[in-house]
Request: fold
Amino acid sequence: MQHVKIPQDRIGVLIGEGGETMREIEAEAEVRLDIDSENGSVAVETVGDPVRGLKGPEIVRAIGRGFPPEDALRLLDDDMMLFDVVDIDAASRNKNDMKRQKGRLIGEAGRTRELMEELSGASVVIYGSTLGMIGTPEQVEAVRSAAEMLLDGAPHGAVYSFLEERHNEMKHQGMEYHRFPGDQS
Reply:
């Protein structure tokens, strides 16, 4: 059994309307969730396949970091799916700097965050003092690098170029893999 602590305002999202989301997570990840809505503590107990059960705490953690349940459940899509977090607070000098850094990651009208999602293929959420991402190792690494570039003060244009480059590399790798479907030679 593992214990995960999530913010109070995310408990309702984890439980869902009438417990719907909680039941879906329990069924999909083959775990049992014991949620203490007083302090935000969630006990995750594996009741089925232990490999699927390992993703249970990650799903709860992802929802706690601001992901909608549908995105968090993507962690079960295949064994390669990862959930990772960048701590914006750690890269900030003070509260005002954290607001500025968060603003740089979100971008005007959310455009920077959207581009990170579009060009990497990962799900990206900025919540509280963290940037969370869910995707394959390559997708997560691309978002993490882009976020770290922005936090280090890189111009947005340079970060967008980097993301475009990574997007094309990932697309090209996918093309290489499926190169000659039906070619028997």
Summary: The helical segments are 11-15, 20-29, 50-64, 69-73, 95-106, 111-120, 137-151, 156-177. The beta strands are 2-5, 31-36, 41-46, 82-87, 123-127, 130-135.
